[in-house]
Design a protein that fits this description.
alpha/beta, 7-stranded parallel beta sheet, 23 strands, binds 2-acetamido-2-deoxy-beta-D-glucopyranose, pyrimidine biosynthesis, nucleotide-binding, Class_I_gatase-like, ligase
């Protein structure tokens, strides 16, 4: 097993995670099997209790582990399924050392940060790196370790020391360091300043870690003289200094690294020279980076939510929409709609203006498709219900996730079944018609809260539904859950009779997983979170369904006969044939991907 440690300097938030996962992509493109570990020097034990407002999205893993968007990034970039152990925190390490101390494992010795905590960190890394994560059953060859924070922080010291020792444990040629740093531009002439990077490399070296690569974030490519200066002051060769400037889309980052020979440097530091020669990023370039920039025909999706000011909270949803747009050849136009603004001003606790109200409705009305993602109840739910109603009555494609499914059910109960007081017990305990209720057996306390979490089977009631066709599955699918409330089974029969079909359920048949509305172009909602399993080359079926429906391609796609017809686009004539070919390829690939995904 070989290890690449990715550290950060100067400031946080430089895109260390993207750099680390891009290096993973490069290695994968060289035919190397990769896994990854994210170290967060926090005392929290998992991300479940953290506020999405402060912390961005909570990303759910197959095993029910609650992580943050970094592990999501790794899973998407590297097409892996990680576990909660791939996120190592100070809290987890201390917890395990203290438990062992209580058990008497240390035979009454004094337990200290060095060596007990540092050994525990090294053992953890070795153990977790030796787990197959790509579905092949084969062990990874290289583990990319991202160390959160910046070197020199008090918090990360035990980890830095553990990793310093670790390089000797695994031996020369099995360990290298990539340091991500910042080259700010200062002054009227826009001079690129190397000093912060020099200092952070000096700190890194003083802690016993020597970088094989310096990845320098800057808005523009580094000038040659800047690169040479960095090389000489930081004691590396010029080719070890990479420029990481701003690019048009995130998928360009691995290509940018490849163009500078990063894979060669890393592979030679790890004794994998033969692999470097095999690097092939063709699919990544044509299927993602170039393709994304070349998409023309727009599709407008309204994302109706509450934390909208905080795009991070919906990062996986946005990514899944992007994957679907790549597969469906559409340029994503995301309309962010603040759900509270959909309610008329003056009603309830609403405090927004008439203009905001009008703008929200204009955005919603102009959308080709509506997406209500997961979230918490309370404020803003009445607005989401209005959005669901707009989509249902207007024949606008709708996709609801988790709370978005409960919203669809409440709306249906109120408008179609005539149960005016229908509500969720989450925010209205006294509702006369509680169509959404707390899950009774979930009240066992799980670390960080009470939730039904992780990958579960969803059994399909029939293969004659959009879900089965999109997933290319007859009997069952598997997706990741994170919820506390569910559809009240007592109302299911009445809703089904009125046209709302619950086509996916758990093994007992009493817990609803997927709903579909009859006689509507696309009105689908899921209790699970399909966004967590969406991958750039394997768009999540429901997201693909939404985009296809919103762009008038769904029926053609489902009938499987022809490829979607692209609407007239402003394209040079010479590109047309190539574009057509690309289009056909994508849709076939989309089908194949769905089939492959199903087999796994
Ligand atoms: C790992 O867990 C910690 C503690 O809960 C959390 O703060 C962090 O965001 C998690 N990191 C990842 C990559 O999931
Ligand atoms: C549902 O509950 C919310 C929160 O208590 C409340 O504001 C709303 O009026 C209720 N809706 C109906 C139709 O009872």
């Amino acid at each position: 097993m070989k290890y690449i440690l990715v550290t950060g300097g100067v400031v946080s938030g430089l895109g260390k995670g993207v750099t680390a996962s891009s290096i993973g992509v490069l290695l994968k493109a060289c035919g190397v099997r990769v896994t990854s570990i994210k170290i967060d020097p926090y005392l929290n034990v998992d991300a479940g209790t953290m506020s999405p407002l402060e912390h961005g999205e909570v990303f759910v893993l197959d095993d029910g582990g609650e992580a943050d968007l970094d592990l999501g990034n790794y899973e998407r970039f590297l097409d892996l399924s990680l576990s909660r152990d791939n996120n190592l925190t100070t809290g987890k390490v201390y917890q395990s050392v203290i438990e062992r101390e209580r058990r008497g494992d240390y035979l009454g010795k004094t337990v200290q940060v060095v060596p007990h905590i540092t050994n525990e960190i090294q053992d953890w890394i070795e153990r977790v790196a030796h787990v197959s994560v790509d579905g092949s059953g084969q062990l990874p060859e290289v583990c990319v370790i991202e160390l959160g924070g910046t070197v020199g922080d008090i918090e990360s010291m035990p980890f830095v020391e553990a990793l310093r020792q670790f390089q000797f444990r695994v031996g020369a040629g099995n360990f290298c360091v990539v340091h991500v740093s910042l080259v700010p531009v200062i002054g009227a002439v826009g001079e690129q300043k190397t000093k912060p990077t020099q200092h952070s490399v000096a700190t890194l070296r003083s802690l016993g870690l020597n970088p094989s690569l310096l990845a320098c974030r800057s808005s523009e490519p580094l000038g040659d003289s800047v690169r040479e200066k960095l090389a000489s002051f930081c004691h590396v060769r010029p080719e070890q200094v990479l420029t990481m400037h701003d690019v048009s889309n995130i998928w360009r980052v691995p290509l940018m690294l490849e163009a500078q020979g990063a894979h060669k440097t890393v592979c030679s530091a790890l004794g994998l020279e033969a692999a470097a020669a095999r690097a092939d990023l063709h699919r990544w370039r044509t299927g993602l980076a170039d393709k994304w920039d070349a998409l023309v025909t727009p599709v407008r999706i309204a994302l109706v939510g509450k934390y909208v000011e905080l795009m991070d909270a919906y990062l996986s949803v946005t990514k899944a929409l992007q994957h679907a747009c790549l597969a469906a050849n559409r340029r994503l136009q995301l309309e962010i709609v603040e759900s509270e603004h959909l309610v008329a001003p003056g009603e309830g606790e609403a405090t927004h203006s008439q203009d905001e109200h009008a703008a929200a409705w204009a955005a919603l009305r102009s959308a080709d498709g509506v997406l209500v993602p997961g979230g918490f109840g309370g404020r803003g739910t009445e607005g989401k219900i209005l959005a669901a109603r707009h989509a249902r009555e207007g024949g606008v494609p709708y996709f609801g996730i988790c709370l978005g499914m409960q919203i669809a059910v409440i709306e249906f109960a109120r408008s179609v079944l005539g149960l005016a007081g229908a509500n969720s017990t989450e925010w209205d305990a006294a509702s006369p018609d509680p169509v959404v209720v707390f899950m009774p057996e979930i009240s066992v306390t799980h670390k960080g809260g009470t939730m039904r979490l992780g990958a579960r089977r969803v059994l399909l009631e029939t293969s004659d539904c959009v879900t089965a066709k999109l997933y290319q599955a007859e009997r069952e699918i598997q997706e990741r859950y994170r919820h506390r409330y569910e559809i009240n089974p007592e109302y299911v029969e009445r809703m089904e009779a009125a046209g709302l079909r619950f086509v996916g359920r758990d093994e007992t048949g009493a817990r609803m997983g997927v709903l579909e509305l009859r006689d509507h172009p696309f009105y689908v909602a899921a209790q699970f979170h399909p966004e967590f399993k969406s991958r750039p080359f394997k768009a999540s079926p429901f997201f693909l369904g939404l985009i296809l429906a919103a762009s008038g391609q769904l029926n053609t796609f489902l009938s499987g006969r022809a490829t979607p017809v692209s609407s007239p686009v402003k394209r040079r004539a010479t590109d047309a044939a190539a574009h057509k070919q690309q289009l056909d390829g994508t849709i076939h690939a989309a089908f194949q991907n769905l089939a492959v995904q199903e087999k796994q």
